[in-house]
């Protein structure tokens, strides 16, 4: 699984309140500061990505995926949920080593 | 119990009209774990229908979900409340006891519910037939939404498909 984004996904019109911002004026421990800086850098990098265009090549790839035997109507996709659960469980049990 | 599945089962049991969209929707088209993208919640696209929204809320509650509007708990799921939510095209969220979130969204950038529903696919998840938007609709909506995270999704998704095609000798 590609851990593309830690943010909540939504295809709406922005009515959902944004994720709680980090309060300004507060200080965090060094590790947390580094983690927040990394998130800022990732967000900035995402902003600088060249726009991804839905051109003929991309549309052809989508049509190819859509027509794959594994994507026929009624195909069992339980594994998608099991994968998600295993990833969540994995990170829930991760502990930093001293 | 598989998070999300019980809620989907309840939505279908109660006759709620919805289609899964967003990254979860795209992940149903993945061939393997390596071609999925991480997301924390499932987006269920619903029509602008207050009755349907009330059914959705009650179905989610029936499997132990709590309902939220933004950071506030949603009040009792009445038709009046649903009409106000539909009028605002506002988002409500169902959260189960594992923290899994289902966004009950009334909008999908660039598409009406009828368009997406008419072309949807259905996949089986733990015995439940889950309605899923076509991949082309999901991707086009993300392109039209155009937020940084949508661009990030598109870039990552295109790279995954390109890699998959090369592996399959199609490119």
What is the subunit organization of this protein? heterodimer
What portion of residues of chain B is helical? 40-55%
Task: Supply the number of helical segments of chain B.
Answer: 7
Rg estimate of chain B, integer Å = 16 Å
Order of helices and strands of chain A: HHH
How is this structure best described in words?
The complex is a heterodimer of chains A (98) and B (171). Chain A has helices at 30-47, 56-66, 78-93. Chain A is mostly helical. Chain A is flat. Residues 3-21 of chain A have low confidence and may be disordered. Chain B is an alpha+beta fold and 171 residues long. In chain B, helix 1 packs across helix 3 (50-62), helix 3 packs across helix 4 and helix 6 (135-145) runs antiparallel to helix 7 (148-167). The radius of gyration of chain B is 16 Å and the shape is globular. The mean pLDDT of chain B is 91. Chains A and B meet through helix 1, helix 2 and helix 3 of A and helix 2, strand 2, strand 6, strand 7 and helix 6 of B.
Summarize the structure.
The complex is a heterodimer of chains A (98) and B (171). With 98 residues, chain A is mainly α.
Keyword list:
heterodimer; A: 98 residues; mainly alpha; 3 helices; B: 171 residues; alpha+beta; six-stranded mixed sheet; 7 helices
Produce the secondary structure layout.
The complex is a heterodimer of chains A (98) and B (171).
Chain A (H helix, E strand, L loop, with lengths): L29 H18 L8 H11 L11 H16 L5
Chain B lengths: L4 H9 L5 E3 H6 L13 E5 L4 H13 L3 E4 L2 E2 L5 H10 L3 E4 L5 E5 L7 H7 L1 E5 L2 E5 L2 H11 L2 H20 L4
């Amino acid at each position: 699984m590609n851990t593309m984004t830690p943010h909540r996904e939504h295809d709406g019109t922005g009515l959902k309140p944004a994720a709680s911002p980090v309060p300004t004026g507060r200080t965090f421990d060094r590790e947390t500061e580094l983690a927040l800086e990394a998130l800022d850098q990732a967000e900035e990098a995402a902003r600088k990505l060249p726009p991804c265009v839905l051109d003929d090549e991309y549309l052809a790839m989508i049509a190819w995926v859509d027509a794959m035997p594994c994507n026929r109507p009624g195909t069992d996709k339980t594994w998608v949920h099991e994968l998600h659960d295993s990833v969540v469980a994995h990170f829930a049990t991760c502990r930093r080593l001293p | 119990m598989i998070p999300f599945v019980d809620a989907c089962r309840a939505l279908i049991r109660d006759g709620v009209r919805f289609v899964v969209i967003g990254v979860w929707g795209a992940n149903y088209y993945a061939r393997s774990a390596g071609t999925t993208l991480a997301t924390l919640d499932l987006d269920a696209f619903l029509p602008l229908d207050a009755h349907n929204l009330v059914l959705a809320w009650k179905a989610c509650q029936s499997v132990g979900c709590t309902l939220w509007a933004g950071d506030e708990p949603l009040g009792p799921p009445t038709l009046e409340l649903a009409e106000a939510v539909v009028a605002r095209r506002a988002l409500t969220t169902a959260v189960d006891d594992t923290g899994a979130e289902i966004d009950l969204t009334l909008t999908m950038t660039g598409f009406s519910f009828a368009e997406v529903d008419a072309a949807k696919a259905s996949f089986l998840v733990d015995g439940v037939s889950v309605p899923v938007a076509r991949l082309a609709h999901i991707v086009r909506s993300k392109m039209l939404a155009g937020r940084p995270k949508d661009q990030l999704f598109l870039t990552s998704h295109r790279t995954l498909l390109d890699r998959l095609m090369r592996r399959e000798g199609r490119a």
